[in-house]
Amino acid sequence: MTRPVVTVAERRPTRQIHIGKVAVGGGAPISVQSMTTTKTADVEGTLSQIYALAAAGADIVRCTCNEPEAAEGLAQIVPRSPVPIVADIHFHHEMALAALEAGVQGLRLNPGNLRKESEIKLVASEARDRGVPIRIGVNAGSLHPEIAKRHGGATPEALVESARRELELFAEVDFFDVKISVKASSVPLMIAAYRLASETFDHPLHLGVTEAGPPPAGLIKATAGIATLLAEGIGDTIRYSLTADPVEEARAGRQLLEAMGLRERKGLDLIACPSCGRAEIDVIGVAAAAQRALEERQIPLQVAVMGCVVNGPGEAREADLGIAAGRHKGHLFIKGKIVRVVPEDQMVEALVAEAERLVAEGVEARLAAAEAGAAEEAEADRRALLEVKGQDANRSGERIARIRELVAEEAGPASAAEGRSQ
Question: What are the sequence ranges of the domains in the chain?
Fold first, then answer.
C-alpha cells in the first residue's frame, strides 16, 4: 500500500512581486532573507558579508541606508552583489530616494517611523517609476502612537491597520508592488498578527520574529513563529532576526525550509557575480555550464563563478572553490587563494577537475598543490585590468554624484522649514 505524501498546508495565494530576479509570492519558492551588520559605507566589508550570506542560502540581502555615505556605498555594492539588495529605511525619506538612485532592487519602509504622507507618497511614486517593490515593515515596537492608542497598544489589529494605512497612501499614487510584514518580538502576537494579515491582504507576506535574540533561544523563538505560519500555508519570504553572525540567520532559514519540504536540499551550491562592468566573460553562460557539469558529478561544494579577477577571489573567499576571469584566462581559487591559472576556453573543464580533486583530497592538500607563480600571475592580471578599466568600471561615481545632488535638494527645503520654525 502506497503511503500518502505528508505536506504542510497549501500555501495561501498572493500577488507576485520581483525583487530583482527573485520572485516573491504567487506560488514562487519561499525565499530566505538576511541583513548585513557592516557599515554600508564599508563597500568591501559589506560585499564580503553579502557573498557569505549568499553562500549560506540567502536569496535577498537587506542593507541599512541611514546616511548619505550608506547610499553612496550602495551605488558601488549593488552592481557587484550576487543577490538582490533591499535598502532599509527608517526616518528619512531622502535616504529612500538616494537608495533608489543607487540602484537597489527593493526598499523597506517602517510606517511607524516615516510618517509624513507627502514623503511616503513621493517615495512610492519614485519606486513605481523605477519598478522597485517596497516592503511595508510594520513593527510592534515602533507603531504610530495614534494607532497604538486607539487599539490599546500593539495588538494584531493595530499592526494590520498600520499596514493597511500605508497601502492606502501607496494606492493614491497607483503603487501596488508591495509585500508586507507585521513583526513582533512576542511569538503569540506575531502569529496572530500574520494570521490576520493573511485574511486581510493578498500581498506577499515576509515572516519574522523581531529581536529574537542570540542562539539557541533566538533560534527556538524564531522557529516557533515562522514554522507555525509556514505550516498553515502563510508566508512567502522569511528572515531569522538573531543576535549573531547574519550567516547563521541565512543558514537557519534555509535549513527550516528544507526541513519542512518547502525548498529542495542540494549538494552543489553555486554562486555567481551579477556580470558587472568588470566582467571579462559571459558569466551566466559559464555558470550554467559549470552547474550542469558539477551537478552531473554530484559535487557537494560551494562553488563561485566570478566575472573578473580584480574583486572575484576576495568577494567569494568563503566558497570552497571558484574561478575568476581576466585577460583571457581563468584564475582558479580555493577559499580565496589562487592555485592555478588556465586558458579562458578551459575554465569549466578546469573547475570541474579541481572540484573532483578537492572532494577527494581535501582543502589543505589542494592548497599545497598550488602551481608556483599562479598567485603572482593573477595579481599581475588584476593590476593590468585596473589600468585598463580603472577603479570605477561600473560607473558608480555617476550615481554617487546624483545621490549627493538629490540629498542636498531634499535637505534644502527641510532645513529652510526648520529655520522658520525656530
Answer: 16-259, 269-389
Q: Is 63 annotated as a binding-site member?
A: no
User: DSSP assignment of 342-404, as one string?
Assistant: EEGGGHHHHHHHHHHHHHHH-HHHHHHTPPTTHHHHHHHHHHHHHHHH-S-TT-HHHHHHHHH
On whether the 16-259 domain is CATH 3.30.750.200, my answer is no
Query: How far is 106 from 100, CA to CA, in rounded Å?
Result: 8
273 annotated to a ligand binding site: yes
Average pLDDT, the chain: 90
- The answer on whether 65 is annotated among ligand-binding residues is no
Ligand-binding annotation for 211, yes or no, is no
Give the model confidence (pLDDT) of 329-346 as tens digits.
899 999 999 999 999 889
Residue-level pLDDT at 259: 92
Would the pLDDT of 393 be above 70?
no
In this model, does residue 279 exceed pLDDT 80?
Answer: no
Mean pLDDT throughout 313-325?
88
CATH number of 269-389: 3.30.413.10
**Residue found by looking up cell 510592534 in the block:** 140
List of E strands, 203-242: 206-207, 237-239
